Amino acid sequence: MMKHYLLAPGPTPIPPAVLQAMAQPIIHHRTPEYEALFAEVRQDLRRLFQCRNEVLMFAASGTGAMEAAIVNTLSPGDAVLVVRGGKFGERWAEICEAYGLRVISVDVPYGKSVDPAAVAAALAHAPAVAAVFATHSETSTGAVHDIQGIAAAVRRTPAILVVDAITSLGVVDLPMDAWGVDIVVAGSQKALMLPPGLAFAAVSDKAWARVPSARLPRFYFSFTAEKKAIEKNQSAYTPAVSLVVGLRESLHLILAEGLPAVFARHDRLARATRAGVQALGLELFAEHPGAACTAVKAPTGIEGGAIFKGMRARGITIAGGQGSMRGKIFRIAHMGYVADFDVLTALAGLELVLGDLGYPVERGASLRAAEEVLGHQERGEA
Amino acid sequence: MMKHYLLAPGPTPIPPAVLQAMAQPIIHHRTPEYEALFAEVRQDLRRLFQCRNEVLMFAASGTGAMEAAIVNTLSPGDAVLVVRGGKFGERWAEICEAYGLRVISVDVPYGKSVDPAAVAAALAHAPAVAAVFATHSETSTGAVHDIQGIAAAVRRTPAILVVDAITSLGVVDLPMDAWGVDIVVAGSQKALMLPPGLAFAAVSDKAWARVPSARLPRFYFSFTAEKKAIEKNQSAYTPAVSLVVGLRESLHLILAEGLPAVFARHDRLARATRAGVQALGLELFAEHPGAACTAVKAPTGIEGGAIFKGMRARGITIAGGQGSMRGKIFRIAHMGYVADFDVLTALAGLELVLGDLGYPVERGASLRAAEEVLGHQERGEA
Predict the structure, then answer these.
(1) Which domains does chain B have, with CATH numbers?
(2) ipTM of the prediction
(3) Residue B240 in contact with residue B59, Cβ under 8 Å?
(4) Minimal Cα distance from B8: which residue of A?
(5) Residue of chain B minimizing CA distance to A321
């Protein structure tokens, strides 16, 4: 018997109630039944995104919504500013380049978070920038970026701010209307606790004002087509019905817990994980680690991939490093349908695996440190 | 108690084994477990598409794969020929126009099928055409087009032939390599018996030769990125994991039944449906009706929508007419996880609903006619 534990940064574990909802016989989407379901989902999505406007939904993975944000708001040759601090920051630049935009990069080393003043300075030097692209939670490094600070810099300019919140929505607070973020992009397989295959884009009035004059070509990812359909509780093209059925359940779970409690839970799990790995003498990779995923440097002499593989052999799926980080870091995600004891499972597995690999481990040390965090929280001591 | 019967042209009913497979705890896609699953799916997809090359897969609905076929093979300003005989033929033209292509249309009235000689003649008049777009089974009208004949005309030219097989793959024979079709596009929610959210494109060598010089912009739908990933049993971006898990099961079911038997079953169900509605004095809408879906003219004085709604009130979901066909036709689908008695259910429902609407019905007439077809088949009398 091999029991499996999933602590990778997406797909994340799916609650039984969501799996059961999706396992019901499928319904047709051009029916009053689907429309009633979608009307409810629409409303709950706005609460989750903390926005007044509609949240557009696509049958796609998160990258599809990133592309949608670009093609609906920009024209060939437009200058854009991209904050790059990891693989997903780089993806913004890659999509922009594929569409013939002029990319100005604000680069920070992997593991660092951008200083909003650097974004403000870059915008001052390039006033014609039409859009700024940033990553809230950079999954490849575990770093969180100061979106509130970046938004304060961007909202004074004509540029729109587009944020990849794929691993931050429902993990850390992102009040998009209050902060002045123009497009928030998300996916289903992270804190939404669903399988991959749904992507979202919430769009501000400032971003909508761009759409009529944006000349990049688009069809499947057209904001206008989706907005027209959504007003009738429909999608422009066949929606991923079973995932929308699951989405209703996962939104119920999130909103019943309450956003502040959801954010506090993720913060608590992240602090416990950090305390645990640090108690083993390991070093965090991110300077400002986020609550979605903890990236840890592989100790000297041990390949990060060996840790990842050792965990898998014990039934625990975490993630290794991506691209240039391969072998150098490993990543424990604690996002979505994850609770205290799941984090302890990951830490216990880590102790055993590091021991197998010859790293000196005081057994139980990481669990003790994590319990300190979790126990304090229970007594209301933040 | 309301028991539901789904006979609409997608989503179609999902077999219990597929629902159960998708209801298992989700697996991560960057794992040997997913790669083994996908290796099996890759092989089975080639058998289903009857092609030698890889079948590319996207997290999207079918329209996404239609867009993919266009953006990976063409350049701005290219001339293309589009066969339009319904809503989905029109969609090819709409996507091509959104991408700045010069569209030459070969139009046939709704309900008719194109004469391949008309395609050959149009190609002779426009020798610079880079691609021909056709629809195998036009879901909006129930008509099937002669793809073999069109392919024979196109393969003599430099143009590639791109076929929307969204409601024909796994319904009627489409040996793409043998006929010389260059791109076959399909979706998950039709004969594949899955929820919507996976789209496919099988690509011939002639179409692949276009990709390096095709200048339309693309990122999420990049053939090159998917091909590179698929060789490692991966996807370029996060795949719709739960649907791929279901896909393995549905491909097992289809290939265990055997493609010839699957096609024969769809043909039998379609003939039984046609015999049934004709026994009620109703008229078929398509001149060459396909095996996926039977479109029927609403009888004089009865609005098609009333039939559709009456069926829904009795628990049976069929489809009405789309666009200009709204109210004029209704459509009974018999595709995917559908068997003899499902067709009889639809016909019995239709008799009751037509009776309610004041149409003179001889009760049982359509069932008798359909049973004649189904019974003959059982005794091997085609």
Answers:
(1) 16-256 (3.40.640.10), 259-378 (3.90.1150.10)
(2) 0.95
(3) yes
(4) A28
(5) B30
